[in-house]
């Protein structure tokens, strides 16, 4: 029998509190864990028996026969925000913020923005979703505009997707409250503050939320899950995922992967590895994290990327840290896997401290880093590793 892990933390906030116990049999769609403070409901994505509940995961032995076309529906409600809350929807683009809290913000003079930037390289599942389900996207935007009282909706997508943009423009031609905005093909085009700057021509201060200037932004897959919750009473139990990199079938999109599916299952389904291969990255290449073959797909897993083996590096490394790319911890992990010694670290000069966290002052507009690089060199660095700087 196959065992899977359902993580109790798939969102911003504390891990959820399990409401099932070892020995319980659960059906697909059954509520298994509830928020412990800020968080979102977690439901069973497979039918199976609970064999363990620890502080991190619910461990299931799944039934041999699975019917992924069915599920236990969430409680019916006339309140769409409550449906989103009951379904356990969080930001599917990677942030994991509970979506019902976003949609509870009223912006009667503002704009609801569908984030279709597909920010990180290699990821293509959001573009596939928009190409194949424009009608669903438009219905979802109307639901979100109704919930937030936004009079206008905008679909933000990179201008390089010309055929998609043509189809989107045609679809919204008869929708007076909807529009399409073409984003530049740069990183991090999907950052909320950058989207506000592009779409609304407003520069948010570091730490300032989009709602403060009349914007609510949701990823296009999040909108898909909102539609499912409202129309089909479906909990957030499946995830769209891109698999790419050192695998035999590149840039493959798997639609509605049951949460908890081990990444090795997806790798096997694209023909396995191309050898030699290195680590498995969960998420995008810029902000993803290292995983392994048993790592489960979660509500925020956008990609399964198989990397090249790490090149070996004997020179001393200095880290140039920014908000938009890999964290200091992630870059240190990469340097260590390369066999290098990290001797210094400096923050990008755009970084400012807000409430104990360092934020980028202007996401997507990278400054020159000569002074920072010279500082790293003075501290003994022979080479520099940076998360995303374009300078």
From TrEMBL:
<keyword id="KW-0677">Repeat</keyword>
<dbReference type="Pfam" id="PF13375">
    <property type="entry name" value="RnfC_N"/>
</dbReference>
<dbReference type="GO" id="GO:0051539">
    <property type="term" value="F:4 iron, 4 sulfur cluster binding"/>
</dbReference>
<dbReference type="InterPro" id="IPR011538">
    <property type="entry name" value="Nuo51_FMN-bd"/>
</dbReference>
<keyword id="KW-0813">Transport</keyword>
<keyword id="KW-0408">Iron</keyword>
<dbReference type="Pfam" id="PF01512">
    <property type="entry name" value="Complex1_51K"/>
</dbReference>
<keyword id="KW-0004">4Fe-4S</keyword>
<dbReference type="InterPro" id="IPR031001">
    <property type="entry name" value="PR_assoc_PrdC"/>
</dbReference>
<feature type="domain" description="NADH-ubiquinone oxidoreductase 51kDa subunit FMN-binding">
    <location>
        <begin position="84"/>
        <end position="227"/>
    </location>
</feature>
<keyword id="KW-0479">Metal-binding</keyword>
<keyword id="KW-0249">Electron transport</keyword>
<keyword id="KW-0411">Iron-sulfur</keyword>
<dbReference type="GO" id="GO:0046872">
    <property type="term" value="F:metal ion binding"/>
</dbReference>
<dbReference type="GO" id="GO:0009055">
    <property type="term" value="F:electron transfer activity"/>
</dbReference>
<dbReference type="InterPro" id="IPR037225">
    <property type="entry name" value="Nuo51_FMN-bd_sf"/>
</dbReference>
<protein>
    <recommendedName>
        <fullName>Proline reductase-associated electron transfer protein PrdC</fullName>
    </recommendedName>
</protein>
<dbReference type="InterPro" id="IPR010208">
    <property type="entry name" value="Ion_transpt_RnfC/RsxC"/>
</dbReference>
<dbReference type="GO" id="GO:0016020">
    <property type="term" value="C:membrane"/>
</dbReference>
<dbReference type="InterPro" id="IPR026902">
    <property type="entry name" value="RnfC_N"/>
</dbReference>
<feature type="domain" description="RnfC Barrel sandwich hybrid">
    <location>
        <begin position="3"/>
        <end position="55"/>
    </location>
</feature>
């Amino acid at each position: 029998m196959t065992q899977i892990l359902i993580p109790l933390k798939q969102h911003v906030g504390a891990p959820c509190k399990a409401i099932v116990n070892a020995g319980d049999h659960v059906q697909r769609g059954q509520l298994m864990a509830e928020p412990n403070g800020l968080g979102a409901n977690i439901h069973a994505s497979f039918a199976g028996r609970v064999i363990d509940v620890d502080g991190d995961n619910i461990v299931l032995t799944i039934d041999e026969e699975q019917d992924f076309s069915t599920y236990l529906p969430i409680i019916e409600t006339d309140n769409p925000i409550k449906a989103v809350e009951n379904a356990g929807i969080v930001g599917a683009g990677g942030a994991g913020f509970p979506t019902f809290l976003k949609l509870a913000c009223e912006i009667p003079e503002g704009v609801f923005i569908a984030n279709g930037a597909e920010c990180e390289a290699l990821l293509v599942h959001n573009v596939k979703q928009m190409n194949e389900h424009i009608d669903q996207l438009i219905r979802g935007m109307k639901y979100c505009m109704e919930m937030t009282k936004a009079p206008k909706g905008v679909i933000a997508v990179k201008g390089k997707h010309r055929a998609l943009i043509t189809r989107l423009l045609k679809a919204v031609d008869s929708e007076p409250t909807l529009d399409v905005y073409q984003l530049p093909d740069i990183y991090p085009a999907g950052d909320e503050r950058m989207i506000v700057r592009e779409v609304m021509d407003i520069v948010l201060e570091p730490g300032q939320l989009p709602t403060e200037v009349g914007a609510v932004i949701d990823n296009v897959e999040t909108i898909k899950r909102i539609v499912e919750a409202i129309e089909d009473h479906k909990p957030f139990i499946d995830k769209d995922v891109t698999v790419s990199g050192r695998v035999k079938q590149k840039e493959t999109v798997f639609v509605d992967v049951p949460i908890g599916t081990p990444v090795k299952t997806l790798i096997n389904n694209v023909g396995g590895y191309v050898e030699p291969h290195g680590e498995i990255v969960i998420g995008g290449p810029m902000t993803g994290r290292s995983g392994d073959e048993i790592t489960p797909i979660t509500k925020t897993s956008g990609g399964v990327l198989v990397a090249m083996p790490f090149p070996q590096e004997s020179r001393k490394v200095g880290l140039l840290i920014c908000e938009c790319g890999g964290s200091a911890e992630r870059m240190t992990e990469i340097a260590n896997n390369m066999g290098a010694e990290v001797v210094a670290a400096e923050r990008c000069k755009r970084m400012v401290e807000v409430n104990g966290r360092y934020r980028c002052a202007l996401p997507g507009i990278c400054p020159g880093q000569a002074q920072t690089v010279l500082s790293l060199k003075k501290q003994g660095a022979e080479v520099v590793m940076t998360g995303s700087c374009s300078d």
